[in-house]
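We modelled the chain as a single entity of 333 amino acids. Its sequence is:
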Amino acid sequence: MLHLDSVNELNKGKNLLAFSAGVDSSALFFLLLENEIVFDIALVNYGLRKQSLEEEAYALALGEQYNLKVYTQKAPLFKSNFEKSARDFRYNFFTTLIEKHQYTNLITAHQLGDQLEWLLMRLTKGAGTSELVGLEPITQHKSHNTIRPILHHTKDELLDYLEGYGHQYFIDQSNSDEKYERNYFRKNFSDKLIEAYTEGIRRSFNYLREDKHHLLSGYKEIFNHQKLFILELSDPKLKVRVIDRYLKRLGYLLSSAQREEILNSDSIVMGGIWAIEVRDNLVYIAPYITSSVVMPKKYKEACRIAKIPPKVRGYCYTIDLEPSRVSPPSLHE
């Protein structure tokens, strides 16, 4: 019932499950146990409902019963943009645990409905194939992988599994509140579509994912040092998609206007944070270090000889990177 590639990857590393005690994560919890995958769990308590304490207590009880580590965190009261604030808080918590305890994989309980909700929301805002198919069974980040082993299952299938085995789970009533964008799309569109066309939607996502991988196959990463990436494009049309993909890995999401800016410029700074330079078929991405950093003339000259674009030189200098290492000819040796 779990995605085979996900199982193989989980068996290689140290795993942390993002747990909420809802249908999806509860089903995933017991499926991981069935597959003899070793993992710990992390839960964020938003404190918005009376049963939040019960859900946290359930997580702690599961940890004690199955000898797992359980990490819990109480969230602050978010006064605006709850969805984004809650998500940022949640993933910052997970990332902190991953770095502190050296987890290899973050396991999330995204399922087929989540995929469709994402596609529909992105479709209404204007997006290409890469953005429409935003969820992958395995996503690689710099410090860890995010693994989604039940991405091909519907919520009803997961619910049937839980009830068939008598496993406990909780229903979060706030998931029906349509003031949240995702809930609106779920109730009005994705749930109805999946109920009527489950198999077709499942197959379509498999095809779309294959198409996405094909579209993004026209480049390769040829250099990486800390947060400096150099990518070689075999298809210049992929410039925006590839830059978008790497900035997402670095935790930065592009707006539609910023994608248009990248399309029309080969030397830009995104949000005052990320420098992007395109030279011939090479894309340079690095943190933007302002001109207040004073580089010695010798280092500047070495950068010029190595053909390092100006906007990334400051970062190279701050991390003490020898310019000759970044020179394009040396990247292919």
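As a brief sanity check on the tokenised model: Residues 130 and 212 are 6 Å apart (CA to CA). The first strand starts at residue 15 and ends at 18.
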